[in-house]
Amino acid sequence: MSVSDWRSIKFSVDLVEASTDQLDFLRAVEQYPSLYSGPHVCHALRRYECYWLPLIKILPTDHWAAPLDIAWLWHVHMLSPTHYERDCYTLTGRLIDSSIMTGKTRKSALEKTKREWEKRYPDEPFEVNLGGWVPDSSYYVSKLSYDLPSAVGRQRFFYYQVSLPHYYDKTFLKAALNRYKQFLFLKKENPELFIVPCYDIDLLWHTHQLHPRAYARDLNPLLGETLKHDDSVVDRDPGSKLSEAAALTRQLWKKTYHSDFHNNGAMYRGEPPRGITPLSSEGLFTLCCKQATVILESISLEKQNESSQCILGSIKLKIFKTASNSHLATSLNSVAVQKITTLSGRKEYTWASDKGVTSFDFNTSTCSHLRFTVISCMLGFIERELLYEGTLPFLGVVDSPGYWGKTYSVVVPLHSPTLLEECAVRALLRIEPPRNVGYVFKVQSGEFTLNCEFPSLSECLPYISDRADMKFAAHIACHR
Q1: 0.70 cut: is pTM over it?
Q2: What DSSP string describes 290-337?
Q3: Distance of CA 230 to the CA centre of its chain
Q4: Fewer CB under 10 Å: which end of the chain, C or N?
Q5: Is 437 exposed, middle or buried (0-12, 13-18, 19+ CB in 10 A)?
Q6: Mean per-residue pLDDT for 68-74?
Q7: Is the pLDDT of residue 380 over 80?
Q8: Cβ 17 vs Cβ 209: under 8 Å
């Protein structure tokens, strides 16, 4: 076969559509951690072997749906296709087929199946309380050739790897379908290779296995046997079987297809976080962008020392809100400069009022600094040249609860582009308690293993960073 022959591989199931159904099913299972270990798994194993397989054996070929605990064990069993086929023939005499059902289709099938179940098993509830007590089934000895409880424990991590939104994107999935065909072709050409997929391919592979008859019908003629799926190899340390096989898979893929094997958004994300703890309202408010009303109660220009003659004649003091270049990169709505007010003076350079000199809104999503400029004037209003300028970092002030509702004094040094003397602005500012105006996230590509926290290393997510260089920021690394 030539390399291009991978395009001729056909499937008897719409794997793109069925993959989104699988994601919906995995999301439903994720709502019940009891289905990953403990008494509910033992109880589900007994129900699967003693009730479900005998029932589905005698029912006519049609759409039948198992309750979630049994459906999950059945799902995991099918992900070891060689064991599943062997167990089906041993316990039922034939290969039990399946398809993935969600939504109204699954609901209708459940109602129909429940009626059949209750006819045959009046003493065994069709559904169990997945969040409560179940009878002890630890005594039950499984007749399967496969350690299903251990496999359930391993498969609990798969959904985390494929739970990102782009796995529902049809363009992404159609590309994954082609990569799955290339994956199968690579296996055909290298039958002894322990081939390791990326997670986009793995999702399509899992979906295919969840249709046992189609899986055998599609792949046995291509490969000459049922393609095994071994999820027990999980050690990713350097030199391990998984690590070495992954490296060899990448090399052969590159050699065969002249493209990289890795795929953005489809690589290992690390283990899932050990728990999700919602932030308090106070924590959420710490992370948000804020808008506060600022009252300028008084402002004056001062000499830096007694001998300085820094200001002569008529001037204008202009005050602006500005955004630094780095701040502009985090907000689409940032405006480089926004004028707040202009104050004029001739001999006295102090401005004050009982009601405040001026007031303005400061939004931390669009502004980061206050800027002051002093311009000399002729005849009191004709601007001549820039005398002094200086900036005050202000984003941290609005972000800090210690400043809210209080008046504080600040001195801002001003520097001259032409004069040797320097002066300063002294201002009294009052910051009213701010309000939440949303959140801004910055997406940046690169290598961040030393600067970011990975979910698997965190006790809970989301959380507020306490690193000095990441103040007022949450930071999480994701994987290509």
Answers
A1: no
A2: EEEEEEEEEEEEEESSTT-----S-EEEEEEEE--HHHHTT-TT--SE
A3: 27
A4: N
A5: middle
A6: 97
A7: no
A8: no
Give tens-digit pLDDT for 122-157.
999 999 999 999 999 999 999 999 999 999 999 989
Pairing mode of beta strands 369-378, 382-393: antiparallel
- How much is the pLDDT for 1? 53
Which residue from 352, 24, 394, 441 is spatially nearest to 207, judged by alpha carbons?
24
Structure tokens at 38: 């403990």
The DSSP call for residue 272 is P
Burial of residue 413 (number of CB atoms within 10 Å: 0-12, 13-18, 19+): middle
Residue 294 phi/psi, 5° resolution? Answer: -115, 130
> Tokens 């439903």 sit at which residue?
28
Helix, strand or coil, per DSSP, at residue 236: coil
264, two tokens: 């953005």
**Residue 67: pLDDT band by 50, 70, 90 thresholds?**
very high
Contact status, residue 78 vs residue 205, Cβ threshold 8 Å? no
Residue 162 phi/psi, 5° resolution? -115, 20
H/E segment holding residue 88: helix 81-91
Q: Please name the residue that has the structure tokens 């005594």.
A: 139
